[in-house]
Design goal:
This protein is mainly β. It has strands at residues 3-7, 10-13, 18-25, 33-39, 46-51, 58-60, 68-73, 78-83, 92-99, 112-113, 117-122.
Amino acid sequence: QVQLVESGGGLVQAGGSLRLSCAASGRTFSRYTMGWFLQAPGKEREFVAAISWSGGTTGYADSVKGRFTISRDNAKNTVNLQMNSLKPEDTAVYYCAATTFIMHTKKTSYAYWGQGTQVTVSS
């Protein structure tokens, strides 16, 4: 099992940047594909980005390609999401998640979830 805790959310103006972090507990962190999802009010939770266990493969939703970067540090049990050129439509609660599947984008494939961190982008 792995426990996940997100941090780094906040309020930022459009065009600004935020860096989200997810700290994982457990000795098997490096076995998991890690993902970030967002959920806007009244909407379904949706995929943002994922990174393979080694960090060698990443994937992004079309809406964030070129603006967001996912990375991980297996020695520190952390996964990060660098968000640049933020837009008001990026406003949501962002969740860190872990799966034993390889690079899945479906939220149903992820067994472990953090509590989420709020990101608000003002126009």
